Request: fold
Amino acid sequence: MDVLVFGAGSLGTLVGALLARVHDVTLVGRDPHVSHVRERGVTVSGAIEAQTAPDATTESDGHRADLAVVTVKSFDTPTAAAALSTGAFDAVLSLQNGLTEDELAARLDAPVLAGTATYGARLREPGHVECTGIGRVVLGARDGGTDRRAERVGKAFRDAGIETLVASDMPRRLWEKLAVNAGINAVTALARVENGALADGPGHQLAHRAARETARVARAEGVSLSNRRAERALDEVVEATSANRSSMLQDVDDERRTEVEAIHGVVVARADAHRLSVPTNRTLADLLRTWEAGRGVRE
Ligand code: KPL
Reply:
């Protein structure tokens, strides 16, 4: 299969490098990472060890492929959609944090599949990504139900050795992943700890409160996600990625803009629309917004 991985950050590089074990992969990213990948390929270390040679480019327009996998930060979705709309793809799969699929679908002719990924990844240096936790990719039709394209993409991922489930209940799973991110990302970023620090103690309680609030908002949106299920999903990801520095902690470490709006911003906005109170998400959002404003990285 010809695969374009749009966004060569930590997760995009990991997924692209693993897919390149059996597929023709092109990574779209920035230099110096791209030049390094073109010259020496990608080294994967940690929980998975591999050396693969995907193609790589900084050119974002005019690509054609069987599949485009979108791994850019949620706030870069409009830019990714504009670039992808100049190309041609049989299917587009979003593996981003937040609920970005509809934004992609509104701007692309190609069918857009929803996806979540809980692999832990960290870009160590150009051309070197560490897998810090073997999670799982879950993908399927955006509105739920079965989809032949999703089956094909799932097989392509599994053939490359990526733990993948094709699911027929993606709306619930997207909210479940949002609950996991609401529990893990801000708490680890603000407390500057690895995911595993949320296995017990006050961080555990705080993360669980954020996840429970998110599940409540999901139910108000008509999605069947119990508090227990959201909490169990959170605990499972904390355990599977205990050594991982969450993507938001990596952003804070590197003084970059975070995905606060795609995670807590969405939970708070939807809660407001349903007149629900989500004090934990609101506080975490305001703390991160304050940090972003203080660092001058807020747009
Ligand atoms: O999605 C993640 C992230 O860091 O953004 C998890 C699954 C929480 C892994 O750290």
Notes: The mean pLDDT is 97. Residues 170-191 form the longest helix (22 residues). The radius of gyration is 18 Å.
